Amino acid sequence: MSGAPRVGVLALQGDVREHAAVLDGLGAEVVPVRRPDQLAAVDALVLPGGESTTLTLLLASSGLAGPLAERLAGGMPALGTCAGMILLGGEVVDGRPGQRGLGAIDVAVRRNAFGRQIASFEADLQVTGVDGPMHAVFIRAPVVEKAGDLVEVLATVRLGDEDRPVVCRQGNVVVASFHPELSGDGRLHALALAPLLG
What we know:
12 strands; 7 helices; 3-stranded mixed sheet; globular; single chain; Rossmann fold; 7-stranded mixed sheet
């Protein structure tokens, strides 16, 4: 076995190549994950952005939903960005009827909280555990409406008249509203993979 951690990127939709490039830069062995046997072979998983309703359906049709929930419950490190945050969370505030996340992190998430595509924006954030500002690209981004007692809020953004969580961590799971892969910044990936990268 090589010393490099095997990190999967959920390859059903979204910025798979961009996440893979960031992970490669961190020295990980990158594995596209589309099937349960591929999931079984990785040490951690990145869930990229996309359309959360579609991704939920694709997780079910690919047979990945159950095995992924089991791996997450067993402590597998994971990073979810944008729609990946919605998938890893519990409650989906404005989802389709019956839509729920995997419950890997105790957050309630609102989809498209900042508005439609035209309302996309960029901001420099201070993220706890990351040195220096992180340039964040928000595209039809979700936001955390409610976080459980075990959830650590690592960064917030002003929305309306209050600061709202956009980066959170619980155990080995890190979620972010934005797309760190689009700026090529690997620090959030490194933070999520810290249990493996040592």
